[in-house]
Amino acid sequence: MYAGKVLAFVAALVLCGCLEAASTGEGEDGTSVFRRAEEGCPPLETFSKAICVCEDFNDVGKVNVGPYRLGPYGMNYPYEDEGGSVGVNGTSSHTALVGASGSWDAWVALHTTGDFIIGQSVTTTGDLTFQGALRVHGDLSVGGNLSGTGQVIVEGALRLAGETDRRGMMQVGSEAPYVAPAAPPCPCDPATFFDVVAAVESARAANDNALQGVPTDLALEPRTEITLPTGRYFFENLESQGKVVINIAGTVAIYIAGSLDSVGYENFRLADEAQLDLFVSGNIRTVGHMDMAQEYWHGAGHGWPYSRFRLYLGGSDPFIVVTGNQFWGGSIYAPTAAAKFNGHLMVNGSLFVRTFLGAGHLEVYGGLQIPPDSCPEPIKVDCYGDPDNPICVQN
Fold first, then answer.
1. In terms of C-beta density within 10 A (0-12 exposed, 13-18 middle, 19 or more buried), how is residue 79 classed?
2. Of 92, 210, 260, 376, which sees the most CB atoms within 10 A?
């Protein structure tokens, strides 16, 4: 009986065009594997860096990217960890202490005032200006001029295409010819963006709402709290129902047609071990406090293997991470929107945004840590961890 339901569900997905054209495969032990049946699966490389900015990254204040430890003179001294990498397709401008455990690529130009300490390479095709200490544990590649006042230490090779105009100590491991990078660091061609709106529309046609007895129009929902088990859900009219708290009890994907006023713990609450992929076709005005720490894993940068909340925005209006001391336990994909914050923001996940404007202390601990439900190829896909879930098909 169950097999018949699955076949009928898969047939419906094929008819509506929601079935992925992924290749079939077997697990390493030769057994059949499962895969997600629907479209709307973000590609694996969506969060390959801790921070990706399609235009300019401007920040005044302290920045830590990737794991770090206290080093000499109390400064945050980064581990050499590729997970803490930053890509900026425009100009990257920073004032105060900046530390990243991975690489830092600024396509147009890089301007720093204060200590700038990078665990791997630094690359720009334009000018690099600095005031303070510039320390690079890998190679430093500059397609324009290198100018500033302070200390420059490059443990790898200095690859400089332009001139040097600096005052202060300079120490490099070696010198080598400049080689221009093949492309900007972040995949910001609009043709390559994950289509959030299309993903939401695919969920409108195929979802688990009826299976779980949950209306798609929450204006019809009298309860103030809803608990969602593992599955795929579509909602509309959610903005007008801000009083509804959605409890996530399993591995859940929610697709929302329209916009939301805010996203935070006050309206989305994850149980221990739960995960949420939230797709919003429109905009979100504010992103608030979201702390989903489990026992022994409290706070950003303290050992979480991945974030349990991924937010995907299809709109272009700016969104604000609420001011003050905020913890965001998740990743944000908003390639057409501008992000702003003021205060102390800790992010246990990754950021992919159009532009970024910050003032305060920014800590980001994501990148290269793909969550288990990020829709890779058939092998290793856990189908929300439940092979009996009707949104999954067996190869």
1. middle
2. 92
